[in-house]
Amino acid sequence: MELKEVGEFGLIERLKAGAIVDPARVVMGIGDDAAVLKGEPGFLTLASTDMLVEDIHFTLATATPREIGYKTMAVNVSDIAAMGGIPEQALVSLALRPEQQVEFVDELYAGLRECGQRFGVNIIGGDTVSSPRAMVINLAILGRVENDACLYRHGARPGDILLVTGDLGGSAAGLDTLLSPRPAPAEVIAWARARHFRPTPRVVEIRAALKAGGLTAADDISDGLVAEVYTLATASRVGIVLEAGAIPIAPATRQLAAIYHKEPLDYALYGGEDFELLLACRPDKVDAVREAVNRACRTPVTVIGRVVPAEEGITINHRGRVLPLTPGGYNHFQLDR
């Protein structure tokens, strides 16, 4: 059987079997944005890792080394934020071609450090090896969260309200401008490029939201809103109804969608790499969460749907019609991304 037959998520399910040999400190292993371990008194330790591979996650023809470094750190910080935590330490491992310029690596680390400084993350170690072809960057990150504050994908319940931070689709629009450049206002292209290479992990937002209370589940939007909705619904054993008209899409994303003859909603639903947070919240706490985040950092938090019983499935209310929501998003090893 080939990997493309099982896909990324099928492979993960296979790898989970027998992975935990000593469960004494393991609260959550494989299957969420980060692993959760029992830590110092009153806290849980969070651990996550992401690997970026040349010509899959980035190309040297379209990205600067500083952008690659910044994004590598940011996507890992986002995993810690999705669990409600505070990022603290990182280890960076690199596979590099021998002919790679030292100045390139200097700039790569400048990007890593820039994002690390912004979110309080130390780079405490790692490894370097030679690679005959593609460059590979792997970053492992550690963080912590209070025992009673950790958020998982499996906590949503029917009646909860679905929220999202920021806006969606900007990163996918930015990718289009890189891979297929077309005439567009310079400020729009610059904005979209930044959304793709310099996402903002929502650490401040999630910490403010936790203080307001009422959150029941969370996931960061790395593979696209639809993919994360399916992930959260599957983990929580619930259904979800999205409101298409409520999904936040920035004016620049809409402008680029018109230029590329695409639907803005497709960017938002299936684009991925926005690294916003998808949150499930008790109805009585929605206003408090939105107000708390607004006070902390002015990031908008939008109601985009609701959690329903599992038998109602995963649907989207689009222009008055409730339609089944087609699975999609980025999935490694599968050809139909």
TrEMBL record:
UniProt KW keywords: ATP-binding, Kinase, Magnesium, Metal-binding, Nucleotide-binding, Thiamine biosynthesis, Transferase
EC code(s) of this entry: 2.7.4.16
Sequence positions that bind ATP: Y109, G126, D127, R153, S222
Binding site for Mg(2+) 1: T49, D50, D127
Pathway membership: Cofactor biosynthesis; thiamine diphosphate biosynthesis; thiamine diphosphate from thiamine phosphate: step 1/1
Organism: Neomoorella thermoacetica (Clostridium thermoaceticum)
Enzyme class: transferase
Domain PurM-like N-terminal, first and last residues per copy: 31-145
Residues the record lists as binding Mg(2+) 2: D50, D79
Residue positions binding substrate: H57, E273, Y330
Remarks, miscellaneous: Reaction mechanism of ThiL seems to utilize a direct, inline transfer of the gamma-phosphate of ATP to TMP rather than a phosphorylated enzyme intermediate.
Binding site for Mg(2+) 3: D33, D79, D220
Gene Ontology molecular function terms on file: ATP binding; magnesium ion binding; thiamine-phosphate kinase activity
High-level lineage: Bacteria, Bacillati, Bacillota, Clostridia, Neomoorellales
Residues that, per the record, bind Mg(2+) 5: D223
Residues annotated as domain PurM-like C-terminal: 157-312
Role noted for this protein: Catalyzes the ATP-dependent phosphorylation of thiamine-monophosphate (TMP) to form thiamine-pyrophosphate (TPP), the active form of vitamin B1.
Protein's name in the database: Thiamine-monophosphate kinase
Swiss-Prot/TrEMBL catalytic activity: thiamine phosphate + ATP = thiamine diphosphate + ADP
Protein's GO biological process: thiamine biosynthetic process; thiamine diphosphate biosynthetic process
CDD domains named in the record: ThiL
